[in-house]
Amino acid sequence: MQTRALETLVRILQVQSFSEAAQLQNMTLSALSMQMKALEAELDAELFDRSFRPPRLTPLGRQVAEQAKGVITGVADLHDLANAGAGLSGSFQLGFIQSASARILPKFVTLAAEREKRASFRYSSNLSEALTEQVSLGQLDAAIVTRVEGGARGLHVELIASEPMALAVPVALAELDAVQLSQQVPFIHFRPSTGIGKLIAASLGAGVPPQNTLVLDSIEACMECVKEGVGYTVLPLPDIRRYTDTRVHVVEGALQGLTRDLVMLTRDDAQAGRWRPRLLSLVRAAS
Q1: Which pairs count as long-range contacts for 132-140, CB under 8 Å and 24+ apart, including other chains?
Q2: Does residue 106 have a cis peptide bond before it, meaning omega lies within 30 degrees of 0?
Q3: What's the CA gap between 83 and 60, in Å, rounded?
Q4: Any idea what the Cα angle at residue 162 is, between residues 158 and 167, rounded to 5°?
Q5: 3-83 has CATH 1.10.10.10 classification
Q6: What is the pLDDT of residues 164-195, one digit of tens each?
Q7: Among 168, 247, 249, 277, whose CB has the most other CB atoms within 10 angstroms?
Q8: CATH 1.10.10.10 occupies which residues in the chain?
Q9: Percent of the chain residues topping a pLDDT of 90
Q10: What residue ranges of the chain are covered by domains with CATH 3.40.190.290?
Q11: What is the CATH number of domain 87-286?
């Protein structure tokens, strides 16, 4: 029996979808269907109810999939024993929030190619909430997101960096105090539904509320508006520094110690625990 078929069965249990499981396993839908039929024949058991479209796991199928997790873990343990110290191996699905994909991902790709030659990586970018859910469902092995209170229940969280939030103001308005600034130009708010956006909203609640707000879904767009004198914004300091120029006045330490924690999320299980430290080291080195 090939563990690859068991891995596919577990993936179907996780995502409850043949088509999504096929995509995550880098298979065609027809290949996945044939693989599952072969597994049923080998076990002489009906794992799927094909009266539904797409097929659904039978109670026995769910039980076999749960048992298969232990088999897969045991095989992985044997590989770890045989390849101790050899580094990461296999295919990893990683997710990055927008700001991390711009600042961390390019260097990560370079370092991974140099240090982890036995591993391959596929990347995606999304909002913190969506990436967190994908890790929970097993669609991603790890995700780099903004820490949100209560947003990663049941997952393992590792801190990558704690970044101070700072104020970016058009240089022509640098002499204005907070009240004057809020009255004269709009506050440029990066997407309030995101992890960063929620931190920004918290900073507004603790300070002088703006009279007008302009909501944008791109950090770069927020900074371009500041450069053009459209308004002012609050963002993590590394993101401000990435896009700033002489037209921007940066006020550090103006937000009473407010920080954005950039974290790596993984599932909190033994299998992830084997490769997590090495992957975390690689992400931190790229940060």
Answers
A1: 132/265, 134/95, 135/95, 135/265, 135/266, 135/267, 136/267, 137/14, 137/15, 138/11, 138/14, 138/15, 138/24, 138/267, 139/14, 139/15, 139/20, 139/24, 139/93, 140/93, 140/94, 140/95
A2: no
A3: 34
A4: 150
A5: yes
A6: 989 999 999 999 988 888 889 999 999 888 88
A7: 168
A8: 3-83
A9: 54
A10: 87-286
A11: 3.40.190.290
Q: Does the predicted TM-score (pTM) go above 0.70?
A: no
| Residue 60, CB-side half-sphere exposure with 13 Å CA sphere | 8
Residue linked to tokens 């065609």: 28
Q: Please, are residues 58 and 95 in contact by the beta-carbon 8 Å criterion?
A: no
In terms of Cα–Cα distance, which of 149, 124, 151 is closest to 139?
124
Q: Would you give the DSSP letter of residue 244? A: -
